[in-house]
Amino acid sequence: MHEQPRKNPPQSEEVYSYTSIDSTNNTAKELAEKGSAQGCMVVALQQTAGRGRLGKKWHSPAGKGLYCSLIVRPEISADDLPMITLAAGAGLALLFEDLTCQPVGLKWPNDIFIFGKKCAGILTESVGSAAGDRSAIVGIGVNVTHRTEDFPEELRKTSTSLFMVSGKVFDLDLLAQKIRTCVLEKVADLERGMKADIIDCLNERDVMRGRSAQWVTAERKLVKGIAEGVDACGLLRIRDGEGKLHKVLSGDIRLAETDSSFDPV
Hints:
By secondary structure, this protein is an alpha+beta fold. The chain is built from five helices and twelve strands.
């Protein structure tokens, strides 16, 4: 019996561009639910209600960053859905290294760092669709032209931008195209069973490995330990003070030495 070739899903090059929007993820979700194809992208120069993981607000000032959401419909198992964020992060890291000529770090599961400061973040959300297939929205916020004074006071010590690390000015439309390409390429790698390559990319750039970390579990329990990298399933490993190894699927993760005020309550 011959194996049936996998039918590649239709791919869209549609881009919905906005000067200002509440959240690109919200609009992309609506498009996905109506059946828009993989590759369809929503881009904005400003978000009035941008958000990150765990309900955190994403600072999205007008004209300083690129805020975009990409529809993906990968043919992967439900167990591998959390890998979409890691795949997107790997793609962005490689892209930003090429654009800035600087080393890029990844903080599990969704943050991109350059010179120890956050430059971009990812928010992946599952969504239903008219076709009933497995779909997700990959939301990406990138600090592009920010200078130090453009960040709120509380973010200035922990945030950076592509301009600040490279001195280069980037065309936002071209950057959005490059982001779409690199994310779709890594999602395709995931479909091809190249999970190990994505994990390797993350571990090679892991800003947490070997450092003190704090994790708030779903039960609001605070776990302190040393981060030991990401395992073959994409789970973060933290070994606590008693030697117990915790494998983290979700929750709030922070570097302990940079946030002594971290409180799970």
